[in-house]
Amino acid sequence: IIFTSFFYPNYFVSHIFKNIFFIKTIGFFGFLLFGWVTLVLVIKQSKNEIYLTVDDFGILDNSNLVKTGLIEWKDIVEIKKDNLMSSKLILINVNNPEKYIEKAENKYQVFLIKSNIRMYCTPITISTSLLDCSLEKLANILKEEFERHNTTDRI
Description:
alpha+beta, 3-stranded antiparallel beta sheet
């Protein structure tokens, strides 16, 4: 729809949006945004890299644009799953979100982390869209490992 608003702006003229230049501008920027996201996803999908690792130290997350890195078991408070429209996400609540904001490599990643905090009340989300694993299976694996390491740490 956004793409077609650039080439066929008259189709989108209404009593709210009357300015054809405005409609074309929205279409152009929408095309750039979705084109960039598609390009990033295609590049990430074509690379043969490991996006998520679960071990005794924690969860190593490189599955999205934030690239959180190592999320230590001792930092994790809760792991839950969320289905927001078509996005299937694992939400990882941590006891020190500032640590993960400081780990961000650039301002864009800081923006994404803060957006996650506003939308999901946690800085860390893991999407299963690039992973070869279902949301339920990944959530179960992460919860089992979290419980195992929390029990071990308390003994």
